[in-house]
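S.,

Sequence below, as promised.
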Amino acid sequence: MKSPVEIERKYVIMMPDIRILREQEGYSVSHILQTYLESKPNVTRRVRSRGYGDRTVYTETEKTRIDEISSFEEEREISESEYKSLLRLVKQGTRTVVKTRHSFLYHGQIFEVDIYPEWKRTAIMETELISRKVKVEMPEFIEIVAEVSGDKGYSNASMAREFPDELV
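The prediction came back faster than expected:
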């Protein structure tokens, strides 16, 4: 069972070679539509449509930030009709975030590379940690531009309001 506390590190990276990602252990690709909803203060609420080939999974998530790299997260799978119904609660001034996610294992750690249509040269890479003390072992085929863990401008919720310019 996944812990309700998410400890996450996030990086802006140079656009990776997708062929190399596909060669990694546990590789998968999904297409994500992520929409932010009205919510209580200090809570981020979203719905997500995540397509894996011909299968789509819908989820609703609430996150309450604990500190810069961790948050309390509650997520549940929902039906397509509930997803469509919840879309009516879209947070004013936001748009749906579109991304393609490439996930893979590297030295036993899961990495997720999100590629956004707004960027041509860079992408976002995230990894969830089981503890703050875990050292992230970076894949040698990924070029880090900057760590943006805790930088609200690079949260998907912020990107739903205004997409940041590429760093390079």
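The chain has one domain: 5-159.

Coffee later?
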